[in-house]
Amino acid sequence: MDTRARYAAYADRIAPVSPSYAAWARSVDDDLVALLDQVPEQQRQPELLFAVARRLGADPSDPGALRAVGREARPALLTALAAATVQANDPRRLAPVVPLFAALAGTVAGPLGLVDAGAAAGLCSIPDRVTLDYRVRPAEPETGRNERSGARWPIVRMHTAPAEPSLRLTADVSGEVPAPAAHPIRIAARVALDPNPIDPAEPHAFDRLVEAVPPEATDRTALMREAARATAAVPPVRIRGTLPGDLDRALDALPDHVTPVVLTTGTLVYVPGADRQRVVDRLRDRGVHWIALERTGILSGVAATLPADLDASDPDAFATASLDGAAVAVSDPFGVRIRWLRDPNL
User: Fold this and answer.
1) How much is the average pLDDT of 44-63?
2) Quick one: DSSP state of residue 179?
3) What pTM value is reported for the model?
4) Alpha-carbon distance 241 to 94, whole Å?
5) Which of 197, 208, 286, 301 could lock onto 238 through a cystine, CB 3.0 to 4.6 A?
6) How far is the CA of 261 from the CAs of 82, 115, 116, 289, in angstroms?
7) What order of strands is seen across the sheet that includes strand 289-295?
8) C-alpha span between 100 and 108 (Å, rounded)
């Protein structure tokens, strides 16, 4: 997908939740495409460009502000974009992966040791601190209000956080929904690996986290605050580093008595293509577990385990949740609409 097509697709996807970001994406013209083409492919993500533009003073409420900053602050925008990373953890992405942690925890002796790769502030480093409810779509299609919104779908408590502060999530689900967790997830050690790790306790850290969050998404910002409080209660060891080069260092920081598991949530799209496979190969060489929620199709091994009839262009199949390289579910980009393909407990 070329740059213009990528931004057009992003505009269509984000329009229902953020008209301002959709307008910015549709405003990308030849000059901005030329600028984006000067940075590596993984640096051309819309969220990254918009975060950097806002940092340079662009107002999302002005549809022309993105083009203006491209004209008036081009050198600064190009320099910042080349070195920037998307720092907005979206804790909603835990909704598809908490059952995977529960399934894994049920098969190993003792607690887990978590490496959150691409952690930013570690807001996804707390699957054990999530109380997760699923609104389960009935197998037979319904009509009217229930079908559209899930307002009256049965709610199933999938996992209960054993301690406060915790994060409360709700997602709409269908398909081969796994059984609720029989016991709380136990994580005895956690490591946050990121090129620019953020400690939410530092001044202005939260402002940095929400740079890429659409301004209309006030509920998402509130959820991130809730996740930040839960993360502060069980802070990870923060390691500055990248994938795949610093993966071993992060794994080696875990104590010997835990079962290591690496989590990637929307991380590998920012890793150059050849290095993505090196990450997968190193995880296999180390013999550690891997839980992922990554863009559908960017990992060939995971994609090979998807149903042959899956439509990767479906917005509700934007991301694939996988356990140890095997696809178990697909979801929208935010993890709020999930279709389970198989029960991870099997």
Assistant:
1) 93
2) P
3) 0.84
4) 23
5) 197
6) 31, 6, 9, 5
7) 155-159, 130-136, 167-175, 337-340, 326-331, 319-323, 289-295, 259-265, 112-117, 187-194, 237-240
8) 13
